[in-house]
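A protein record pairs a chain with a discrete description of its three-dimensional fold. The shape at a given residue is found from the number at the same position. Here is what such a record looks like in full:
>
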Amino acid sequence: MAQIILSLLVISLTIFGFLGKVESRSRARMYLQAQCQPTIYFDLCVRTLLPYTTKKELPSPRRLAQITLTTCLVKARFTKVYVDMIAKQYNKTKNHREYQALEDCLNQISYGVNQITQSVKELQQMDTDVEEKFVWHESNIKSWISAALTDTTTCMDGLLGDTLGNKVKSMIKARFLNVKQLASNSLGMFNRFTARHRASRAIRNP
């Protein structure tokens, strides 16, 4: 009898622990769904941020903007490495036309990586700089993210025509599309952060 009671107790604790995790996950998801409203790629936004949200910590709008931007940078760097690898393969086979198309795309993603890197650094600088420079930092970050979006779109729309094989073209396009979507979400989350910051400042200094 005692063993049965002990077993039931263990099962009950396991169930309650599971329900607690589900409740925590559900609360985190609801929070992110509200935060991700300004983004175009809403589901991607929630999936990107969910691993960084727990019951004990619901990241601030600034932190969420930082996470989306850093994630975009990581994906952009992986895309650059991938395109560089494919370009070298085409260069070895002396497919000069295909190699040139890949080189053009490689230049675009390289520009994008630099712009997103600058944005990440600028967002970090916003924490330590004086309030008077907030607008200047904001303008820089928006310009760089927008430029990165343009770079990814240029490669997808203009440099991946019939020159490359369908399989290679699809693989590269999928990676650029992911970077583009993350950059778009980063801009949306950053805009939300700056709007909330201004609203908070207006309350403190009416």
Remarks:
- Confidence is low (pLDDT under 50) at residues 4-23.
